[in-house]
Design brief:
By secondary structure, the chain is α+β, with helices and mostly antiparallel strands. A 4-stranded antiparallel β-sheet has the order 2-3-1-4, with helices on one face. The radius of gyration is 11 Å and the shape is globular.
Length: about 80
């Protein structure tokens, strides 16, 4: 198993409920290990995932499919 981390910048402001819902949505994707927002950086979603099961593009696509404008950070 190969664990990777990506950071996704979400353009919109998400309230606590929306952030929790996004974390839960990400957990439903096969291969996602730990999605999380950090306090004070509510636009940044850090996702640890098994790169043998999921791709950065698929994770970004899931955020965008939720109706948010987003991009990968540092790619």
């Amino acid at each position: 198993m190969s664990i990777s981390d990506i950071m996704i910048h979400i353009d919109q402001s998400l309230n606590t409920e929306a952030r929790l819902a996004m974390e839960e949505r990400m957990r439903q994707i096969e291969g996602v290990v730990a999605p999380r927002f950090n306090s004070g950086k509510e636009h940044l979603l850090l996702v640890a995932f098994n790169s043998d099961k999921a791709s950065a593009a698929a994770l970004l696509g899931a955020v965008r499919a939720s109706g948010y404008s987003a991009q990968l950070v540092g790619v």
